[in-house]
ArsR/SmtB family transcription factor
Amino acid sequence: MDLDISIKSKVVFAALDSSVRIQIIQLLSKKKMNVSEIAEAIHLTSPITVMHLNKLEEANIIRSEKRGNQRISSLKVDTINISFPNQLYIPFENWDIEIPIGQFTNYDVTPSCGLAGQSGFIGKVDNPSYFMDPERYEAGMLWFSKGFVEYRVPNYLKTNQSLEMIELSVELSSEFPFSNNRWPSDITVSLDDHEIGTWTSPGDFSDIRGRYTPEWVYNDMNQYGMLKLFRISKHGSFIDGQHAADTLISDIDSTKNSWTLRFEVKDTAKNIGGCTIFGNQFGNHNQGIKGTFYFNDTTTDNDD
């Protein structure tokens, strides 16, 4: 489950704000149980136990099913990720871009792989040739088991401006045929062959539906990823604020018209679990690949 700090996430936080409900989650992490079994284990009456179960079910943490006169409960999620707002004071000017995830310019991928748009799959699934389908620009989700996709990122710097920092955000997960919530994958992100870092995705999530994922996508397919923030600065490169590589902003050639941004699962990776990239109207974050480029105006006043 992927959460942000907003009112709509309050029901989940409220459900977890109880030692009794934490006990219930711990019990259900081991096996399915009926109301009587749970009530006996936590030493409460059945009506009070049902009240706690209802709060957990409302928060999409557990699911319940009827078997005769019994209510059987089971755990629905095994991971909850909370994204906090990323705020950083930068006394620089900046420009923003957003690249649609279907606007890649180069690729070399192996199945399972594919592209998906608002109304269905784009081309044939598990056939890399269709990554060059003209309709790829409509993709809101793409996935591959191994290999890379590349995007061209425009450079709008003027000659009197110096690049100070780059921030990139994108929603990512692993790739498993249909899905697997526990399927680690080492996804490496680089800019012009300078590594920003490698993030190990914990899985390919389908515990709940993505907020923006179209209705036609099967419940057991990739539903959402995790929004990751990649940063290149004068201090090095960072993923979600944690140092990830030694690439400095000075390593990026600011005289070029554009840079090459690559998302890759390497042959040499410890965890080869694929990569899924979510874009507009898919996943939990309605965005493509967002970039913010901070710069300084180096024009100086030469008057004495």
Observations:
- The mean pLDDT is 92.
- Helices lie at 10-16, 19-28, 35-42, 46-58.
- The radius of gyration is 23 Å.
